[in-house]
Amino acid sequence: MSGISKLSDFWVEKYKKESKKSWDKFYKRNETRFFKDRHWLDREFDCYFGLPDKLPLTILEVGCGVGNLVYPLLEVQPNLKIYCCDFSPRAIDFVKKHSCYNENRVFPFVNDITEDSLLEVLGSACIDTLTAIFVLSAIPREKQLRSIKNLASVIKPGGHLVFRDYCDGDFAQEKFMTSGDPSMIDEQTFVRQDGTLSLFFREEDIAEWMKSAGFGLVTLDRVNRTVDNRKRNLNMKRTFLQGVWKKL
Ligand SMILES: C[S@@+](CC[C@H](N)C(=O)[O-])C[C@H]1O[C@@H](n2cnc3c(N)ncnc32)[C@H](O)[C@@H]1O
User: Fold this and answer.
1) In CATH, what number is assigned to the domain containing residue 119?
2) For the chain, N or C: smaller number of CB within 10 Å?
3) Which residue owns the Cα nearest ligand 1 atom 8?
């Protein structure tokens, strides 16, 4: 833990309060260039997306960004109806401007999952599969349970939540801890230079929050990946947490 520097309460509150603004600025700066399309999800979790038979299912992708998961998924499974939301209005505009946007298949909307009721927007628990990919890590721990309950409220009984996110012990967490820059909120949560939050999940925490929100565990695993950072000419060994829960 050498070099670790904790933020003052003032800055912790400020970063938490300005999270939405920080992400919207992120999309103003990076537009659609930052995240790569995610082509692995349908391969690793095909049965949750109605594959291989291309069954007509209803999906909700929360924290969808500019659609890096939505459009690759729709390409391999055109029978999906995909609701997708993000709290950055700019990100949602990019989803709508995408060349593959199809208003009969893709339904983007602005929503802060920590406080805006998804049930009010969707009207009923109509979701077969909800995807939360690198979004819950942007939310402070005290808001996790409330947010996950919000997600649970729109999933059909027997439907699934598919999760992948940062894991405790990951290379990026070690970097925060040794950088010397003041970035720590608590041992699991850090602030990036652009003001966005990054929570590194412990298995026991996410398992407890999901259980309390009415989910039964299907799988929860650590996955190791080597990620290329071409700009910095780096190969990073990353550890993510990946899981599936069933709405009881
Ligand atoms: C790391 S990006 C992941 C984007 C996308 N899921 C993907 O896998 O490429 C995190 C996204 O979550 C969104 N986000 C963060 N907190 C949120 C919240 N409270 N409600 C809705 N979206 C949120 C951010 O705006 C950002 O687009």
Assistant:
1) 3.40.50.150
2) N
3) 133
